[in-house]
Design goal:
Elements: H1 19-29, H2 37-42, H3 49-56, H4 62-65, H5 93-104, H6 115-128, H7 132-136, H8 147-160, H9 162-179
Helix pairs in contact: 6-8, 8-9
Length: 180
């Protein structure tokens, strides 16, 4: 099929468009993206970023919030009287309090193993016990894991699910007792 006319031609640059003005107006309209929900709810869109953060007791510039002490030639620190910076009034202290409380909560362990790996490890332990060489020769060892790799997978399972592993081993011992 032949090409459409004009498609291979170079595009001309339009000198009449003021791109700076377009870019500035787009930036002015965009609101700041705030990840923390506590800050988002306390945010006042009529105020600047620095004013909003100062009201919440947060710093917009870490270099100004905690200044580095100036050193003299002898290496001794110069003490400042603290009059250089004015005290800022924190009108929304609940934001910082909520953030501190949220940070103090313990983290939940979200690490889990895949169902396939759990089934694989349970099958190997059930059929071979602690014999890793026999496990390596098993027909269900699809990925041809070496005895050390299988042992490592079993140890990972033990570390992730210690109670479940103990119950599983206890049930295997109970089955052996019932068979005899």
């Amino acid at each position: 099929m032949p090409k459409a006319k004009g498609k291979s031609r170079r595009q001309k640059y339009s000198y009449n468009v003021n791109r700076k003005r377009l870019y500035r107006s787009a930036r002015r309209r965009a609101a700041p993206r705030i990840a923390c929900s506590h800050i988002r709810h306390a945010w006042d869109p009529t105020k600047s970023v620095a004013q909003n953060l100062a009201e919440m007791g947060l710093a917009d510039d870490p270099n100004k919030a905690i200044p580095i002490p100036k050193k003299t030639l002898l290496g001794m620190e110069v003490e400042s009287d603290g009059r250089g910076q004015g005290k800022k009034i924190v009108r929304k202290p609940y934001v910082v309090n909520e953030m501190e409380y949220e940070a103090s909560l313990p983290e939940k362990k979200s690490n889990t193993l895949s169902r396939d790996l759990i089934d694989y490890v349970r099958y190997m332990i059930q059929n071979h016990g602690e014999n890793y060489k026999e496990m390596a020769r098993d027909e269900k060892n699809y990925y041809q894991d070496t005895p050390k790799q299988i042992k490592r997978k079993i140890n990972v399972y033990k570390n992730f699910y210690p109670e479940e592993y103990k119950d599983f081993v206890a049930s295997l011992k109970q089955e052996k007792m019932d068979v005899q």
